[in-house]
Design goal:
The chain is mainly alpha-helical. It has helices at residues 8-38, 42-70, 73-91, 102-133, 144-155, 157-176, 185-194, 201-212, 219-254, 268-271, 280-304, 310-318, 336-357, 364-388, 410-438, 444-460, 462-471, 474-503; strands at 322-323, 326-327. The longest helix is centred in the middle third of the chain and has 36 residues, at 219-254. It is globular and about 75 Å long. The two termini are 25 Å apart.
């Protein structure tokens, strides 16, 4: 599967694997951590989550500009790894639950998230640009799409285990402190602290007794203690990302010489061919084509990246967290996407290879359009099941979680993640490949940064999903994402011939 690809591909993928582990640790637990730690509702937690997710990508544009200006891609990537590691150190600090200093610690958390996002901005787009440069010659050029698909699969291996390890660490700390895990308790604890006479006290008492293994006589003391233990477990989960970042840093430094160097990349020694100066009109056409694609994918990312927000809320509020003899956590569903990426990538690559051998492989823009249609079908599934399950408004179950009989099967989310992952494999790695192929050589870093910037714009819109989730029927929330994906698909189809012509 990797035969014929540049040697630096595996090294780059392994270097990125640790970073992906840390990132997926963060994304698996961040929104639930914000709610459990600070008692935020879905809208406020969603706003912080979407802003962080936006910064992850918009700062990649800054990182691309820095690398392009300094011509020091390798040094910029190295600095990104170090800065990200420091950000995870800040997130791992286990501050206590205390109403008098909650605002201070919330600000501290937001600063920590910004540090992580800035480090990611220095790292992410520039490493992708380096991978693209590995394919900028006749020997490897035809393997560009499959190369980025393999790169995408390898870096997701670390992402498979991140949610499980994060949940395992959090639950280990709960067990060590004499408690069991319950997804609904943090919200009930904050509700009791804010109003000890709220209508959910009976349910709170029941769950408090259940996780403690005894009758709780002082619910106020229990609420504070459970929240402190629960959130300390989250902090220790963030600490696991520090170890992963250290491994990633070691791999990158050990293999640094295998990566192309932009300062000498234009020579025949590095690329195998001399780089020809591009006509200004062609440069403009290529940039216009890329900007058009960037505008379209905003709608896709707005829908796709709900996996860490509204789909995680749905796992906590409406999904039965049991699968046969196994108890699940809301966060563990986050491992579905990287799991499917890793195991479906060889299938997708093989299918495209088979089509290529018969000269009927779809163009990259056509693959992206197909992927957007597939993503729409995932949310159609969520819409139909939510509607016919007659799920109540989120506002109606705050402080009064649904009984097991009304919860939907976990196979719904598993199926949704499967479909969304297939869509992702048609869009994300191939979109990166398209950018690396079409972008004028001297604007590689900036164009990769703008691709991530488009993702950033879609991510900033994520909070709209959180607002809808708490304000309208659940099925209507999913319908909005269906519409967004369909708009993206038809926009790509409309521009298809132009994009294919520019990409030749």
């Amino acid at each position: 599967m990797i035969k014929g690809h540049p040697k630096g591909l595996i090294a780059a993928s392994l270097a990125n694997m640790g970073e992906r582990f840390g990132f997926y640790t963060m994304m698996a637990i961040l929104v639930l951590f914000l709610q459990a730690k600070f008692g935020l509702d879905g809208k406020d937690a969603g706003l912080i989550y979407s802003t962080f997710y936006m910064l992850i990508y918009v700062l990649s544009l800054v990182g691309g500009i820095i690398a392009d200006k300094t011509k020091n891609y390798k040094g910029t990537i190295l600095a990104g790894l170090v800065v990200m590691g420091f950000g995870y150190v800040l997130m791992a600090y286990p501050s206590p639950i205390n109403a008098s200093n909650q605002t201070t610690y919330l600000v501290f958390t937001c600063i920590s998230l910004f540090v992580i996002a800035f480090g990611n901005g220095l790292f992410k787009g520039n490493l992708q640009a380096l991978v693209g440069q590995m394919y900028d010659n006749e020997k490897y050029g035809k393997l560009r799409d499959s190369g980025f698909s393999l790169f995408y699969a390898f870096i997701n291996i670390g992402a498979i285990f991140a949610p499980f390890i994060a949940v395992g660490v959090r639950n280990w700390w709960l067990g060590r402190s004499g408690f069991e895990y319950n997804a609904n308790l943090p919200e009930l604890c904050h509700g009791f602290i804010a109003n000890p006479n709220n209508e959910g006290v009976a349910k709170f008492q029941e769950l408090a007794n259940q996780v403690s293994g005894t009758t709780v006589t002082d619910l106020g003391a229990f609420a504070t203690e459970y929240l402190n233990v629960f959130n300390t477990g989250f902090h220790y989960a963030f600490a696991t990302a520090i170890i992963a970042m250290g491994i990633s840093l070691f791999i990158y430094i050990a293999n640094k010489k295998k990566f192309p160097n932009p300062q000498t990349h234009t020579s025949s020694k590095d690329s195998g061919v001399s780089q020809v100066e591009m006509d200004p009109k062609e440069v403009k056409q290529r940039i216009y084509a890329l900007l058009a694609v960037f505008a379209v994918v905003i709608f896709f990312w707005f829908s796709f990246h709900q996996n860490g927000l509204t789909l995680t809320f749905f796992a906590k509020d409406y999904t039965l967290l049991k699968l046969g003899p196994w108890n699940l956590s809301a966060e563990t569903f986050q491992s579905m996407n990287p799991f499917f990426v890793v195991f479906l990538t060889p299938v997708i690559v093989a299918i495209f290879g088979w089509l290529r051998s018969r000269n009927i492989e779809p163009s990259t823009p056509k693959k992206i359009a197909i992927g957007m249609g597939i993503a729409a079908s995932a949310y159609v599934l969520m819409t139909v099941v939510s509607y016919f399950s007659n799920l109540p408004l989120k506002a109606d179950i705050i402080g009064n979680p649904l009984e097991e009989a009304r919860l939907v099967t976990p196979f719904l989310l598993m199926g949704t993640y499967l479909i969304l992952t297939i869509a992702e494999l048609f869009i994300s790695p191939l979109g990166i490949s398209f950018v690396s192929k079409v972008a004028p050589p001297k604007y590689q870093g900036i164009m990769q940064g703008l691709w991530l910037g488009a993702t950033a714009a879609g991510n900033q819109l994520l909070f709209i999903g959180a607002v809808l989730y708490e304000s309208v029927p659940i099925w209507l929330t999913w319908t909005v994402f269906v519409v967004a994906c369909v708009i993206s698909m038809f926009s790509m189809i409309f521009m298809l011939k132009w994009l294919e012509r520019v990409a030749k």
